[in-house]
Amino acid sequence: xxxxxxxxxxxxxxxxxxxxxxxxxVWKYSLTGVVSYFGFQFLFIFAWAIIALVIDPNYxxxxxxxxxxxxxxxxxxxxxxxLYLLHKYLEKRLKHQQITSSVNxxxxxxxxxxxx
Length: 116
Hints:
transmembrane helix, elongated, transmembrane, membrane, mainly alpha
C-alpha cells in the first residue's frame, strides 16, 4: 500500500515540474518519473544480487529474508535519491530551455516577417 502512495507522489512531483515550466506534454514527465522509480529499484536489486554472487557464489536467495526487508528498503532509498537527482537535472534543463527560448523571442522583436 505504501508503494501506491509513493508512486502517486512521484507522479505528482514530476507532473508539477512539467506544469511549472509549461511543458506541452506533461504526461511524458509523469511517466518518466514513475518508470524511473521502478527502474532504479530494479537496478539496485540487480546490482545487489551480482555483488552477493561475487562475494559468495553459493548464495541462497530463496532462504535469505534480508532480500525481502533490508534490501527492499535500501532499494527504495536509492530510487528516491536517484529520482531527486533526475528531477534536479530535468529542472535545470527545462530552466535552460526556458531562458534560451525567451532570449530568442527578445531578439525577434522589431523584425519584419512580412518581407515588405
